[in-house]
Description:
Blueprint: E1 3-8, H1 15-21, E2 23-26, H2 32-39, E3 46-51, E4 57-70, E5 80-95, H3 96-101, H4 109-112, E6 118-121, H5 123-133
Parallel strand pairs: 1-3
Antiparallel strand pairs: 1-6, 2-5, 3-4, 4-5
The structure holds a DNA duplex.
Amino acid sequence: MAYWLIKSEPDAFSWDEQVANDVEPWTGVRNHQAKKNLAGMKVGDRAFFYHSNVQRAIVGVVEIVREAYPDPTAESGNWVCVDVKTVGPMPSPVTLADIKQDEALTDLALVRQSRLSVCPVSVEHWQYLCRMGGWSGD
DNA sequence: GCCAACGTTGGC
DNA sequence: GCCAACGTTGGC
């Protein structure tokens, strides 16, 4: 199974809304590299839910429950989305500042390509970030 | 196909 | 609010 990180501006769609909705279609991605990442997601993969812009922190964990299908919010039909399900909140959110300070995380896609809204996370980084956030996991 | 202009994202 | 990074558009 693979690991990912998906970004959302809390003003547009926040973690609280994700928790309230439980399962949410992850739509609106309009970047080819991000699309490629979405298309590579499998059911059962997990992703960090990251708040960009105002909070800048990993605030929770979600699971992919439906693989890439045409994004209904795209008129062209050329974009895709996936469905993600709430797994749980990070006990202590991992901030971007924390991540940037940590030498083990300098090659994280989140840091290297700040504008990419859907990025892959290696197993090593996933476990490392989980430890930082106090995620006991399952 | 190159490149300048412009728009958007996201950190600070 | 500013700016850097990056994507897109359009003229040539």
